[in-house]
């Protein structure tokens, strides 16, 4: 008698990703926004300047795309740092 074997394959799903976005305001200095992008998002100064200009000219700029927990942490870090420095800079996240 032969035994029938079935192979079970499990597929791991990638976690949903979220965009972390900086929103423009009229009070936060551009150099502070560049510093935030370099410090919290590990962008090069050139990348940070490009994103900062998008925030300034278009009203918002994507800083990066991350899993939920990472995106949530980055949003909290940026918003807390901005408040500590007295700036109204706002960082949000949205599903990709």
Report on this structure.
- InterPro entries: ClpS, ClpS_core, Ribosomal_bL12_C/ClpS-like.
- Binds to the N-terminal domain of the chaperone ClpA.
- The chain is of the alpha+beta class and 96 residues long.
- The chain has a domain of 67 residues: Ribosomal protein L7/L12, C-terminal domain/Adaptor protein ClpS (Ribosomal Protein L30, Chain: A).
- 45% of the residues lie in helices and 22% in strands.
- It is built from 3 helices and 3 strands; from the N terminus they run E-H-H-E-H-E.
- The chain has a 3-stranded antiparallel sheet.
- Helix 1 packs across helix 2.
- It starts with 16 loop residues before the first strand and ends with a strand.
- The mean pLDDT is 94.
Topology at a glance:
Blueprint lengths: L16 E7 L6 H12 L3 H14 L1 E8 H17 L5 E6 L1
Antiparallel strand pairs: 1-2, 1-3
Helix pairs in contact: 1-2
Which key phrases capture this entry?
96 residues, alpha+beta, Ribosomal Protein L30, Chain: A, three-stranded antiparallel β-sheet, 3 helices, 45% helix
Structural class: alpha+beta
Q: What is the H/E string? A: EHHEHE
What is the CATH-assigned architecture of the domain at 29-95? 2-Layer Sandwich
Indicate the overall shape.
elongated
- Spans of at least 5 consecutive residues with low confidence: none
CATH class of the domain at 29-95: Alpha Beta
Helical segment tally?
A: 3
The amount of beta strand, in percent, is: 15-25%
Mean pLDDT: 94
The strand count comes to 3
N→C terminal distance: 53 Å
The main sheet orders its strands as 2-1-3
Identify the CATH homologous superfamily of the domain at 29-95. Ribosomal protein L7/L12, C-terminal domain/Adaptor protein ClpS
State the helical fraction.
Answer: 40-55%
Radius of gyration: 20 Å
The profile of the biggest β sheet is: 3 strands, antiparallel
Q: Report the CATH topology name of the domain at 29-95.
A: Ribosomal Protein L30, Chain: A
Protein name: ATP-dependent Clp protease adapter protein ClpS
Family: Belongs to the ClpS family.
Function: Involved in the modulation of the specificity of the ClpAP-mediated ATP-dependent protein degradation.
Domain Adaptor protein ClpS core: 14-91
